[in-house]
Specification:
296 residues, mainly alpha
């Protein structure tokens, strides 16, 4: 087996596992919202703070002063802050707020509008006409969201307006999460950028939402769910995916990570009893098809 083939398989496996872990985190979040009196304003700041702190402690022990290098360059530091707040922080909060107002499967699929937003932004920033495949991808994404939100009847919103708006914001956040760290990834280690971004995002969101004013029912299921969300659903999924992007590129990584909405939907049905109408599945297929069309 060639080295290129091994790199491709490793990158694909990392993206697949990252997507699987992230899809699972949505269901654990839905469980906490439904049964443990948790809100997104409590969960996300705590999740980011603890996740970022755990990673940075590890890097300080392993690499020492190198962990602080990114803060020595003012431009890089400001870009890191923007990534932490508007990329990671916004991405996590809008996604889980959508789950709180709808369900994990729907929130995960709507978030996959992100690649279409990236296509539109790329065309505008480069002042070029979109390719035919890009036009088709954006149209499919639009049709898919229309079906999910209305089931074909524009006078009857199946998805609540606030859940739809927050879901669309989560797609914008995915685009920002993808685009903001591009320059940083060329100069610094992806896991270190992720760790600092999580900590910065957690600090800012804590100042905004004041999670200490909220709480949760504390028992073994809630502690286990929170542990999964921090260790596997946050540190694990984001680290695996960013490393995959570095190995095989964003397009191939996004294809392998398509397991994410599938796993979120299946787990929501199996463990949360979430019911999806046939038109929901049709809408999901339209949205997810944009990833494959973009890859073509």
């Amino acid at each position: 087996m060639t080295k290129q083939r091994k790199t491709f398989l490793l990158g694909g496996l990392l993206a697949f596992l990252g997507g699987l872990f992230w899809g699972g985190s949505g269901v654990f979040g839905q469980y906490l919202f439904a049964y443990k009196e948790v809100t997104s304003m409590f969960l996300i700041p705590i999740r980011l703070l603890l996740g970022g702190a755990i990673m940075l402690v590890f890097f300080f022990i392993k690499d020492g002063r190198k962990t602080m290098e990114i803060w020595k360059n003012k431009k890089d530091a400001w870009l890191l802050v923007a990534y932490g707040v508007f990329g990671l922080g916004m991405c996590q909060f809008t996604y889980f707020q959508t789950i709180e107002w709808s369900n994990a499967g729907t929130a995960c699929v709507i978030q996959y509008l992100g690649p279409s937003i990236i296509v539109v932004w790329t065309c505008l920033s480069m002042r070029r006409k979109p390719k035919l495949t890009e036009v088709i991808a954006v149209l499919c994404a639009t049709v898919g969201i229309y079906i999910i939100a209305t089931h074909g009847n524009p006078q009857n919103l199946v998805l609540s307006p606030k859940a739809l708006i927050m879901g669309l914001l989560s797609a914008v956040a995915v685009a920002m999460y993808t685009l903001l760290p591009v320059k940083l990834l060329k100069k610094y280690s992806a896991p270190i950028i992720l760790a600092w971004g999580m900590l910065v995002g957690g600090i800012v969101l804590s100042l905004i939402f004041r999670p200490w004013n909220y709480g949760m029912i504390i028992d073994m299921p809630s502690i286990g769910s929170l542990t999964y969300l921090i260790i596997i659903g946050t540190i694990g999924s984001f680290t695996l995916y960013t490393q995959s992007v570095k190995l095989i590129g964003g397009v191939k990584a996004s294809l392998f990570s398509c397991i994410e909405p599938v796993s979120a939907t299946v787990l929501a049905v199996l463990f949360m009893g979430t019911a999806f109408a046939p038109l929901d599945i049709v809408g999901f297929i339209f949205v997810l098809s944009t990833i494959f069309i973009s890859a073509i």
